[in-house]
Amino acid sequence: MQRWEHLVTDHTVLSVVAGSRAFGLATEDSDTDRRGVYATPPGLLWRLEKPPAHVEGPLPEQFSWEVERFCTLALAGNPNVLEVLHSPLVERTTPLGEELRALALAFLSRRVHRTFVRYADGQVAKAGARRARGGEPKGKHLLHLLRLLASCVHLLETGVLRVDVGADREGLLAVARGEVSWEDVLARRAELVRRADAALPDSPLPDAPDTARVEEWLVSVRRRTLDAGSADGGTAGKVRAS
Predict the structure, then answer these.
(1) Would you give the DSSP letter of residue 240?
(2) What residue segments make up the domains of the chain, in order of their start?
(3) Beta-bridge mates of residue 33
C-alpha cells in the first residue's frame, strides 16, 4: 500500500462509479472509474508535512479528493467533481457522505457555463492540434466534450445536473468510433455552445453557489471528526453500500 492510501481505505465518506458506466456509455471494453471523497483526520492536518489533497488508488482507475479540496473544486463548478455528487452508482457512503450528497444543489451555480464550456474548448483545441500534426482526434475525447456540453445545456435550462446521457447514447458512441466527421463534431459543438449561451441569462441556477452553507458543513466535519477520533464523524462501522 502506498503511504497515503489509508486515507482512502479508512477514511472515505463517499465513493461512486463515474465515467462511462455512470454516463450510460459503457461498452464491453470500458473500465470502471471510481471517484471518492475522504475526510482526513484533523490531527494529520496539524503536522508540518501535510497529507495530500487527492490520492490515486488503491484500486485501478480510482481517484479520491480530500473533502476540503473536493468542496473547493465543486464550488468552482468543476464538472468532474460535480458529477460525483450526482452519479447514480453509489458504492460506498457514510452519514457524512449522505450529507455531502444532500448538499449537491448548494454547489451549483451559473459558473458551470464557464467551466464546462472552457473544458470543452480545451478538448477541441487539443483535437485540432492533433489534426494539424496529421493525426486523427481521439473519438473518446470528442465524445466527452459533446457529452459535457449537452450536460451543461440541460443544467442551465433546468437546474438539474444530468449524468446519464439517455437517448444521446448511440449518437455519442458513433462519435467515439470515428463515424462522425470532424466538421459535424464542430457543428454539434457550436450548436450546444449557442444553446448554453442562450440559456444562461434565464437559468434557474443562482449566480453563485451557496459557499456559506458548504463552509458551515465543512467546519462541522472537522469538528465531528476531531471529537469522535474517526474520519466518518463517529460512524465507523456504519458504512452503507449500494
Answers:
(1) B
(2) 6-107, 111-199
(3) 18
pTM: 0.89
Whether residue 46 contacts residue 53, with contact meaning beta carbons closer than 8 Å, is answered with no
Side-chain-side CA neighbours of residue 237 (13 Å) = 1
**Residue carrying C-alpha cell 457555463:** 113
Distance CA 187, CA 49 (A): 49
Terminal Cα-to-Cα distance of the chain (whole angstroms):
26
Look at residues 178, 185, 177, 144 and name the one whose alpha carbon lies nearest to residue 163. 144
**The three three-digit cell numbers of residue 116, written as one number:** 464546462
Residue 66 amino acid letter: E
Whether the CB-CB separation of 195 and 115 falls below 8 Å is answered with no
Question: Is the distance from CB of 106 to CB of 214 less than 8 angstroms?
Answer: yes
> Alpha-carbon distance 79 to 37, whole Å?
15
Contact 103, 217 (CB under 8 A): yes
| Size (the chain), residues | 242
pLDDT in tens, the chain (242 residues): 478 999 999 999 999 999 999 999 999 888 999 999 999 998 898 888 889 999 999 999 999 999 999 999 999 999 999 999 999 999 999 999 999 999 999 999 999 999 999 999 998 999 989 888 988 888 889 999 999 999 999 999 999 999 999 999 999 999 999 999 999 999 999 999 999 999 999 999 999 999 999 999 999 999 998 866 544 444 433 445 55
Cell 488508488 sits on residue:
57
Topology of domain 6-107, CATH: Beta Polymerase; domain 2 (3.30.460)
Quick count: other Cβ atoms within 10 Å of Cβ 91?
16
